[in-house]
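Q: What would this chain look like folded?
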Amino acid sequence: MMTALRTAARKSTNPLDATMTKTQVVRRKFKSALPRTPENRELSALEAMARTMQLLDQLINETAAAGLDTNNVQAGLVYHQPRTKGEESVLARTIVVPPNAKEIGKKFVDAVVNLDKPRFLGVLFLQHDPDTDRAEYKNVLFVWPFLNGPDDAARLIAARNQQAKGGFKKAAN
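A: My prediction, written as structure tokens:
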């Protein structure tokens, strides 16, 4: 009897899940599993790419576990170049991870490695929800920061807002 109670307690779900679409539940679970505060240190290009891929893979796996289409998830690495001549005043740019895994090396890795003195801000996610009735919830953009400064947060929000206006493009400014 006690074992049955313990098993039932472990399988409990958030009461809000009943009012949310599957995609919204996946997003809530993904975001709640992330650390509350980032490490707040500048990452190398390899660390930034690895962290981006790790987070994207985690979101894709949670999406698949919920029985949803994994093609409805995208991610991009947000950066700026304050120490690069001619790029100092650019708020942020985004390099999108290609949906086709075979193109990641050429389109994503090469683009990141060839950046001149980048400062990586975080990961920008796009999650498409085909089940919602409200247009404003069809495509949700959210970020996970690498850095915790107020200027860094503003740059991430600017990148998110720009993507919301122009779609998930290869590079945006």
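Strands lie at 73-80, 93-96, 119-128, 139-145.
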